[in-house]
Amino acid sequence: MPDKSSATPVDFWFDPLCPWAWMTSRWVLEVEKVRDIEVRWHLMSLAVLNEDRLDELPDEYRELLETKAWGPVRVVIAAQEEHGAQVLGDLYTALGTRIHNKDEGPGRETVAAALKDVGLPESLMEHWDSTPYEPQLRASHQEGIDKVGQDVGTPVIAVPGADGEQIAFFGPVVTPAPKGEEAGRLWDGTLAVASVPGFYEIKRSRTKGPDFSNL
């Protein structure tokens, strides 16, 4: 097994529902192939993020959060608590592949199939409607938000800044997910902006939706 003791840590917060987080997660895994980094996965929740502002949201998005966002994250946090955080990366890959690449959606059958894909027990589906691990879900979510601030969504990544202290960002939001050295250059740029004290944001309007064609 490769020695990861010298690798640059990258903490990544995701909600499996979010297509943009999925794109960014595939980028950061590509970076692992061309740069010495170690990705550490964490769960956040769009349902938790928006629970106090549902009345402000468009009807379609509010319905999505109320009907489809809670079940998957409850199952994922149960998997983490009962089988260890090391299962998150593979489980997220299985979920995202089915939800986004195969367009199966985030329903019960999809999540159950993803559990089977990675050898986790179907009994985790018992957490779909409620879970005793909700405090852990909220704590994981809050850890990411505390690093980046409230006015963001998912993905959130945290990387070392100039003094080694973690700097967190929403994003990078990118489509399609860069491959090879292109992925490495975007990573280099991420570290570069993180090294500048007082840097906060670069942004432009999105002109296309998530492109999963190269995943």
UniProtKB/TrEMBL annotation:
InterPro entries: Rv2466c-like, Thioredoxin-like_sf. It holds the Pfam family Rv2466c-like. This is DSBA oxidoreductase.
